[in-house]
Amino acid sequence: MNITSFNNVSIQRNNPAFCKKYIDTDVQIRNTNGTKSDGCFVEYERKSTRDMMQIETLAKLWKDKTPFIGAITENFKTSRGSMDGVHLYGLENTYGDTLALAKVLDSYDIDDGTKVTYISYVQSSPDEMYTAPSRHHKGLGETLVSKIVQEAKNAGADKIELTSVNEHFWESSKLFENKSSNRRDADKILPSKHFDDYIAYVDNKTKPRYLDACG
After folding, report:
1. Are 102 and 144 in contact (CB under 8 A)?
2. Contacts of 77 (CB under 8 A, 6+ apart)
3. In which element (H, E) is residue 44 found?
4. pLDDT digit string (tens) for 137-158?
5. Which of 42, 105, 111, 145 counts the most CB atoms within 10 A of its CB?
6. Alpha-carbon torsion (11, 15, 21, 27), positive or negative
7. CA distance linking residue 54 with residue 76, whole number of Å
8. Longest Cα–Cα distance in the chain
């Protein structure tokens, strides 16, 4: 039986009564000491009381330490109804602790009708942010985004569009393109032709050769 815990409450993974969706339970997370840890890629459900408690707790604990937690959790906490296409994805460790969150919307581009996945916000735990002095992991944002890219690919999206800030983060892979030639338009896209490239870019960082060189 696959058991995990959050705030010392034991739960069974994929238990319908719990509702949290475990999309990938074999995620490799890079550690700052050059090793790897196991993690899970999950989607939180508004209809789940436990998920609601977990997100409300994160919102309180991260409120004064992270810039985007309020924007990420606001709709999740205030609406138990259907919000078509809106997803709250998370990267968790094997204890059920949330290491990173992302707010995502599946929709259509009003200009050309193509199917698009919008990444609105990506936020790491305050203890795991790049500037945190005692963080245990690195590349959490990239790892979470790579799983979102895989979900977009599985859903048949034509592109991923970013409304999330942090220019350096998105520039590092060299795969995201400017949405338009207008310099004032800061939005970037990842066309579907580069989905596999981004997934491989992140996956390669968990290979022994990369860990040995950069750990």
Report:
1. yes
2. 52, 55, 56, 59
3. strand 36-44
4. 999 999 999 999 999 999 999 9
5. 145
6. positive
7. 11
8. 54
